[in-house]
Amino acid sequence: MARISKKRKKILNFIEKDKQYTIEEAVNLVKKVTTTKFDSSVDVDIRLGVDPRKADQMVRGTVSLPNGTGKDIKVLVLCTPDKIDEAKEAGADYFGLEDYVEKIKGGWTNIDVVIATPSVMRYVGPLGRILGPRGLMPNPKVGTVTMDVGKTVKEVKQGKIDFRVDKYGIIHSSVGKVSFEPDKIIENATEFLLTIIKLKPASAKGTYLKSVYISSTMSPSVKIDAKSISV
What we know:
Layout: H1 6-12, H2 23-33, E1 41-48, E2 60-64, E3 75-78, H3 84-90, E4 94-96, H4 98-105, E5 113-116, H5 121-124, H6 128-131, H7 149-158, E6 160-164, E7 170-177, H8 182-198, E8 209-216, E9 222-224
Parallel strand pairs: 3-4, 3-5
Antiparallel strand pairs: 1-7, 1-8, 2-6, 8-9
């Protein structure tokens, strides 16, 4: 059995085992037990009472975090020449088509979000085997296939994120940085959770939010009382 360091034991003493905390208590605890020297991300993990194998229980969508993610989001816009200036002015990091399609085919994925216009999807489609597993494939359902390139780039840069339940029924997302004031993390996490609550599939039976945990990079997780999140 792996030994637990004195520092780790001290941290774990702050969190009561099996206790469910309000979101306010949980956020303050996460900030208290984070000891990394870098600015850790604050992550929320939600286990849903859905069967992702059924199309009508696939929970996915987007949410604009009120206070952003705290990350420098790298955005690639795949588009025709007439949309390049719009993408550039909106703050996209990369923009174009043929050169980037070839770079991606060669394994380049140093980006966080890919946005594409509908007219270039015939070039983007074959990249699915590379972009898909990394969650980078443009999709009209989450707004990343669009003619409104400028607006979409700005939204992503300001904190718009997309999420999708995995095959285990879990949704995971970053909702800020430990350096954020507690109120800003609470506001972001609440907005994220409320968005997911509103997406409950009509066919999902029983408890929808089975468990909600919040943590920072390398910190213990803190369980949130789902009942403390109200629509």
